[in-house]
Design brief:
Layout: E1 3-7, H1 11-18, H2 23-30, E2 36-43, E3 47-48, H3 60-73, E4 79-84, E5 87-90, H4 94-102, E6 107-112, H5 117-131, H6 136-150, H7 154-161, H8 165-172, H9 178-187, H10 191-198, H11 203-214, H12 220-230, H13 237-246, H14 250-266, H15 274-299
Parallel strand pairs: 3-5, 4-6
Antiparallel strand pairs: 1-2, 2-6, 4-5
């Protein structure tokens, strides 16, 4: 097996190329302590993906484009991997590995490192979340892995990936009920809408409302109005379901808008925490923009 020396990947370059933080940045900084590291040419047959890879769907077209680039320009840089029996688990770069196979390469340059399961999991999730968007369900499952296998709290996950606690909580709510998870994957319903559905505990009621969302008869705001209206009222389920449909009718819309205004009036800016400040600003900006557009349309 041949070996060759290559210039080390500096901490700055590692962070720039991965777009990551925490453990990845730390590993990149370790590289500055070594002028050179041994890079081995490893047969592709020995390389296997990171078992903690959160991505389950790969864009075939993107892989093909990457393969063509490799054919024309060669394989840039090298991969990291850890020993696993007679195989080597790559730390990250499964798309590059797939493209290299498609391009007909027989070996790839690999740096073998000693990494724990925890590090493999953290790197796989951090690199994927920060470098290219996962699907909402893939991302939620990745965060659930951090909770289940490494006992991370929601706050710790948020700090690790550089997102808000509310953002992580919203995604995790997708996994609460299988039908909601399936709807996000198959019908592309918005995450925030799915989060509102997950707050409805009654199974039959939840499934009925979910179908209305899929059919375009209900959205997040109508679900919020529906839930708020039911907190202190008793009503047959069939009438409740009908009221969600009616929440989007012209007759009911002004009532919903009035509720939003009353809700805003109850909140004090001083009570907003640093953790929710960014999400609050974004939500208010969207609300102001949408309200301005509606006012222009109504006044024209």
């Amino acid at each position: 097996m041949s070996k060759r020396k290559r210039a080390s990947l500096t901490g700055a370059k590692a962070k720039e190329s991965l777009g990551a933080m925490g453990l990845l940045a730390h590993i990149g900084q370790e590289e500055t302590q070594h002028e050179q590291r041994d890079i081995e040419e490893i047969p592709l047959a020995r390389l296997i993906p990171n078992p903690y890879q959160p991505r389950s769907i790969f864009d075939d077209h993107h892989i093909e484009e990457l393969a063509e680039s490799i054919k024309e320009h060669g394989f840039y840089g090298h991969l990291w991997a850890r020993q696993k029996g007679r195989k080597l688990e790559i730390v990250y770069g499964e798309r590059r590995l797939r493209a290299a196979k498609l391009a007909g390469l027989e070996t790839l340059p690999v740096e073998i490192r000693e990494l724990s399961d925890q590090q493999m999991l953290e790197i796989a999730i951090t690199e994927n979340v920060q470098r290219e968007n996962l699907s909402p369900v893939e991302e939620a499952k990745a965060y659930q892995q951090l909770k289940d296998e490494l006992s991370y709290t929601v706050r710790a996950i948020a700090q690790k990936i550089g997102k808000s606690v509310g953002y992580v909580s919203s995604l995790l709510s997708l996994l609460r009920y299988p039908e909601i998870q399936a709807a996000v994957e198959e019908h592309n319903i918005p995450v925030r809408t799915a989060e509102e559905l997950a707050k409805i505990k009654d199974e039959n009621e939840r499934k009925e409302l979910l179908q209305q969302v899929i059919d375009g008869e209900a959205d997040r705001q109508s679900l919020i109005a529906y839930r708020k209206g039911d907190e202190n009222t008793e009503q047959p389920k069939e009438e409740k379901g009908e009221r969600v449909r009616n929440a989007n009718t012209p007759k009911a819309q002004h009532v919903v808008y009035a509720k939003w205004l009353r809700s805003l009036e109850k909140h004090n800016v001083e009570t907003i925490t640093d953790e929710t400040r960014e999400d609050t600003i974004q939500a208010l900006e969207q609300l102001v923009s949408r309200a301005s557009n509606m006012l222009e349309q109504l006044r024209s």
